[in-house]
Amino acid sequence: MVNIMNGDRRTGVAEEFIRRHHKHEVGENQCSSSLVKHIKAPVPLVWSLVRRFDQPQRYKPFVSTCIVQGDLQIGTVREVNVKSGLPATTSKERLELLDDEEHIFSMRIVGGDHRLKNYSSILTVHPEIIDGRPGTLVIESFVVDVPSGNTKDETCYFVEALIKCNLKSLADVSERLAVQDRTEPIGRV
């Protein structure tokens, strides 16, 4: 399932990036989806937030604290404490990929007190022009087991809601920082 929020020409661009970078092997009792967000802030600013595996709370509203074990290399594990209100208190997550040139970030949940088993996600960041200014196309995809007692639709809906909230927060934080930087429109001196 691809949840693309705009019906314009950018849809084809997003679909191409999804085909190229968001490949998940989906088992019989799993669900998967891709979500797209257009952010009115330049790629370097957005990527500077996304790439910080050790500081997800900078834009993820459900994360209260994060403790990292290791030195921010592939395989590094973080323990995330989740704010109250969600059906979890902790999540243990491993960094799977961090590509600063292609702007690709991937992580896998390896433990915690929640129902997201065999969860992995890929998040990519791509430049685009929005209203004549440097903007960012963010795509996040995931695959996860469907817990016993839930349907694929229920599971996808729940995970998509979390990701949409995270992407909205990423946009809010990035756009607020971009306004502070007063990024000039492309083509102007």
From TrEMBL:
Pfam families: Polyketide_cyc2
GO cellular component, one term: cytoplasm
Protein location: Cytoplasm; Nucleus
A single BP term in Gene Ontology: abscisic acid-activated signaling pathway
GO molecular function annotations of the record: protein phosphatase inhibitor activity
Domain of life: Eukaryota
Keyword Zinc: no
Family: Belongs to the PYR/PYL/RCAR abscisic acid intracellular receptor family.
Protein name listed in UniProt: Abscisic acid receptor PYL8
Organism: Forsythia ovata
